Amino acid sequence: MSIRDEEQQLEKLGAFEISNEMLKLAQHNKKSNIFLNAGRGNPNWINTKARLAFARIIEFGAKESSRTISEGDLAGYTTLEGIRERLETFLSPKTSEIDQFLIDAVNYAHDTLKIDKDEFVKELVDGVIGNNYPVPSRILKHSERVINAYLESTLYRGEKLAEQTDLFPTEGGTAAIVYIFNSLKENKLIKQGDKIAINTPIFTPYLQIPELNDYEMVEVDLRSDEEHNWEIQASELDKLKDPEIKAFFAVNPSNPGAMAFDDTALEEIKKVVAEKPELIIITDDVYGTFVDEFKTIYSVVPYNTLLVYSYSKLFGATGWRLGVVAVNKENVFDHLISNFSQEKKAELTTRYSINVLEPEKMKFIDRMVADSRSVGLYHTSGLSTPQQIMEVLFSLTHLLSQEKDVYIETSKAIVNRRYEDLFKGLNIEGNASKENSKYYSLINIYQLAEKIYGSEFKKYLMEQFEQVDFLYNLSQKNGVVLMDGVGFGSQPGELRVSEANLPDEDYEIIAKQILELIDEYHQSFLQQ
Ligand SMILES: *Cc1c(COP(=O)(O)O)cnc(C)c1O
């Protein structure tokens, strides 16, 4: 097979699959360069505080459990009475910052959220020990308060929505997305042939899900492009007014564009919803904390919006699988279901009748929990309790921080300096707007080539080579793996660099390798 045929085969794969192929090539690259994978979004930092606190609660939990039964490694269950006092006796806040954090956490839960201290400690302890099914299965009682406070503080920019928001923690944002799609379909809120709008370029799973036979949805591009710094334009959002569009899925800040919707775009969404009060919006705000003064769509149109958040990126916790779905207690999903015809309602009543006595009154979010375990296994649904407590502890690191959350500021500074190094190395202007999360950047190889060697050379690159050729050579010759932007619905020639997953010093090297390879293409251009 010729290189060109091989590349055409490659172009049929998804962006993540192409990236896997590139990894193999890069590991044995021709120049024997160090192998650099800037393709993945997995961060190379972690939050230590919450993890150490988790370990500390397990230690206490094991000791606490031995109070009721203690026969070798076999211990009993914990008891509520006096548990907070025993925890405080167990901890040494004077010598351990982590122990002090746990004491502060209990005080915060009590003073700010008005949660009983013993009950809070018991939920944490039993949660990490994991000796009971998650009850209530949707989310542990006090955990919901803490996670809501975290989401409000980090994503809502001052809007007070914590008290009126229901949460469902899930196995990462990925499971949240799957559950949402599934329940929208099961509850007939979206059906075959419905138009669904998505803001492209977008995280590939979103592009791929609508193409699955299950959904057969039509994509409507709400393209944000480089010309506008990847900022979505109001005129594009106007497309949402199309009466055939039932739902809008947004990734905000976007991936790979990395830009958050600005206030003008948020205002536009508000106007659209005023005209189309039954519009369904799903917003994935995984990167929200990487933008100063971020504001989610959920805080602008809470009635219409399902919010997805994941702890994966900020806390370096992809292996934990920690995500959450947030839905307003008053919402369009319940409203639409309650307005269904008798016939449609009856069908759904049958579906959930084994779960609850009055299925017609079952909230959409609870239907999602039931659907996540195929209805029949609703009684053993819910995210594992240790995972829920890990979400609580990550949330508390933020809630207990003073004025500025130093951890969040540090994570932003990291991606920021890598972004600066990359752009400086490429000798091009970065995007300094405040909506830029800088978690990813899109580098347009054709534009870069044109800027350095002129438009004839750019034409040569575009015409003589497959669009993955540059990516392919960057891997197999130079040992640098980037992600193909086309797979995300972006323009040919755009490569995604992740500022999250390589040591700082590598970003300058990546820039150098990109320029070196462009130069090699230019040599062959001159020799034609
Ligand atoms: C990384 C990422 C997620 C996170 O997924 P997890 O399953 O929580 O690891 C969700 N959405 C987008 C757009 C992402 O880039």
From TrEMBL:
<dbReference type="InterPro" id="IPR022518">
    <property type="entry name" value="Aspartate_4-decarboxylase"/>
</dbReference>
<dbReference type="InterPro" id="IPR050478">
    <property type="entry name" value="Ethylene_sulfur-biosynth"/>
</dbReference>
<keyword id="KW-0808">Transferase</keyword>
<dbReference type="GO" id="GO:0006520">
    <property type="term" value="P:amino acid metabolic process"/>
</dbReference>
<keyword id="KW-0032">Aminotransferase</keyword>
<dbReference type="InterPro" id="IPR004839">
    <property type="entry name" value="Aminotransferase_I/II_large"/>
</dbReference>
<dbReference type="GO" id="GO:0008483">
    <property type="term" value="F:transaminase activity"/>
</dbReference>
<keyword id="KW-0663">Pyridoxal phosphate</keyword>
<dbReference type="InterPro" id="IPR015424">
    <property type="entry name" value="PyrdxlP-dep_Trfase"/>
</dbReference>
<protein>
    <recommendedName>
        <fullName>Aminotransferase</fullName>
        <ecNumber>2.6.1.-</ecNumber>
    </recommendedName>
</protein>
<dbReference type="GO" id="GO:0030170">
    <property type="term" value="F:pyridoxal phosphate binding"/>
</dbReference>
<dbReference type="InterPro" id="IPR004838">
    <property type="entry name" value="NHTrfase_class1_PyrdxlP-BS"/>
</dbReference>
<dbReference type="InterPro" id="IPR015422">
    <property type="entry name" value="PyrdxlP-dep_Trfase_small"/>
</dbReference>
<feature type="domain" description="Aminotransferase class I/classII large">
    <location>
        <begin position="147"/>
        <end position="514"/>
    </location>
</feature>
<dbReference type="InterPro" id="IPR015421">
    <property type="entry name" value="PyrdxlP-dep_Trfase_major"/>
</dbReference>
<dbReference type="Pfam" id="PF00155">
    <property type="entry name" value="Aminotran_1_2"/>
</dbReference>
<comment type="similarity">
    <text>Belongs to the class-I pyridoxal-phosphate-dependent aminotransferase family.</text>
</comment>
